[in-house]
Each structure stands twice: as structure tokens, then as C-alpha cells.
Q: What sequence folds into this?
């Protein structure tokens, strides 16, 4: 029988370890380097992921690990931890306090536990399949918005999805107002009822697996752009909405 409460408690223990490290590193400042794909990485990314991996391997040696900075481990396991040590590394490296740590557990490819740790804001969202989402231990719900004209949209920088610029331009015109490059912090705002739509692209599993239980447990909906449920093998484009009806309307625009 799956002891998901044990996994959730362990995930929060990991977040407890990560929070002071990220706060201290941010305050001290960190250099960075560019990878071959043009993305940015810091020594802190690697140190945090090493710490998380060591704790997983010690506590659940049969579980798999999929992370951003190092080789994957035991991906044939039923349980796979998916880790993004710093979601928003560019912001972190630039001294902008808009970043977080993502920790997720997938069972047979489906995210069943998600933790979004936003250290500088002192926010932690915890989503567990079949349970309400908690932010700092309190139940949260998405906002009941159903009309695009009333919706607040968060999306990645327009340049990240140039080939779909016309679709995003239409959504920007139809929504109330927009926010750019919020990353994982935007999804915490979504489940707290401050945003209504989050659209992102060019993502990997470690960017979105943790978001799934968090959004769903708060009453929202999160899928790929075709409306398919997200799992560890999903593609790079995701969309989350505060209500199923609003989500259907967003998917109609994204598929046009």
C-alpha cells in the first residue's frame, strides 16, 4: 500500500534543507556559467541537487531520480523523484528574487506529489493527489474566473514561443492584464487565487511535474496545450487555469 503521507513528509524535509541554502546563497550572490544549450547554471544549482539526491538515495534507494543538472538514476523504477534545484536560475543569478525549488514524486510516470518552495517569499505549496493543496499549511483554492476578459494571465517571455506568437498575442488582447516570466512562483499565485491562467513553453519534466498536484489540489486544471494530462513524458508546453471552464476556453485558443 502506498504511504503517500510518508513521501510528502520527506519532500517537506527536503524543502526545509533547501530553503536556508538558497536564501544564504542569494544574499551572498552567485556567479554563473552558460551551458551548451544557452541556459544558465550556478554552483548553487548543482550543490542543492546533490544534497537532494543524497537524501533520496539514503532514504529511498530503490526510487529513481530525474534532475536537471546530473545524470538520471533508476528511471525504470515505479517511483521517480523529479527535481529542479532552482527554477528561475536566470533570476537567481541576476539577483532578482523570483525563483524557487521544485520537488516532485511520480508513480508510474504520473505526478502524485508536488512541492513548490519559494524561499525568499517564505511560501511553500504542497500538492498531494487526492488531497487539498496547502500553502504554508493552509488550504488554498483557485479563483472562480470563467471569462477571458476578467482573467489575469502569466506567461513566459514572448520570445520563448515565437512560432506561436499570434496565438499568445490574441490571448494577451483578450485577457485583463499580463505578467511575464513568473516561473514556478506564478503557479503558487494561481493556487492562491491571484492569477487565473499560466502558459509556458520550452519546459522539461523537472519544470512542470511538481506543478501538477499543486494546481489540481487547489481546484485548477493543468494540461499540455492539446488538453492531455501531464506526466513525466509530456512535451514542453503547458497551460494551467483556475477553473475547468476557463481552461477549455484557453485550449480552444491554443489549438487554433
A:
Amino acid at each position: 500500500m502506498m504511504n503517500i503521507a510518508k513521501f510528502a513528509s520527506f519532500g517537506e524535509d527536503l524543502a526545509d534543507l533547501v530553503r536556508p541554502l538558497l536564501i544564504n546563497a542569494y544574499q551572498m550572490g552567485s556567479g554563473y556559467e552558460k551551458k551548451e544549450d544557452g541556459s544558465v547554471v550556478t554552483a548553487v544549482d548543482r550543490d542543492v541537487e546533490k544534497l537532494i539526491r543524497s537524501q533520496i538515495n539514503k532514504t529511498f534507494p530503490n526510487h529513481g531520480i530525474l534532475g536537471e543538472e546530473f545524470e538520471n538514476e533508476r528511471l525504470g523504477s515505479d517511483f521517480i523523484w523529479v527535481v529542479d534545484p532552482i527554477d528561475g536560475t536566470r533570476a537567481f543569478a541576476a539577483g532578482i528574487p523570483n525563483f524557487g525549488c521544485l520537488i516532485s514524486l511520480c508513480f508510474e510516470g504520473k505526478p502524485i506529489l508536488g512541492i513548490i518552495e519559494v524561499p525568499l517569499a517564505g511560501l511553500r505549496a504542497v500538492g498531494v493527489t487526492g488531497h487539498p493543496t496547502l500553502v504554508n499549511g493552509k488550504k488554498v483554492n483557485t479563483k472562480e474566473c470563467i471569462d477571458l476578459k476578467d482573467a489575469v494571465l502569466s506567461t513566459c517571455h514572448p520570445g520563448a514561443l515565437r512560432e506561436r506568437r499570434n496565438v499568445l498575442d490574441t490571448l494577451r488582447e483578450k485577457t485583463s492584464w499580463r505578467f511575464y516570466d513568473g516561473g514556478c512562483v506564478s503557479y503558487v499565485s494561481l493556487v492562491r487565487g491571484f492569477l487565473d491562467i499560466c502558459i509556458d513553453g520550452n519546459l522539461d519534466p523537472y519544470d512542470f511535474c511538481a506543478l501538477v498536484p499543486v494546481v489540481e489540489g487547489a481546484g485548477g486544471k493543468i494540461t499540455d496545450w492539446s488538453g492531455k494530462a501531464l506526466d513525466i513524458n509530456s512535451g514542453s508546453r503547458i497551460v494551467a487555469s483556475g477553473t475547468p471552464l476557463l481552461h477549455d476556453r484557453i485550449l480552444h485558443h491554443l489549438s487554433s
Observations:
- The chain has two domains: 4-139, 148-254.
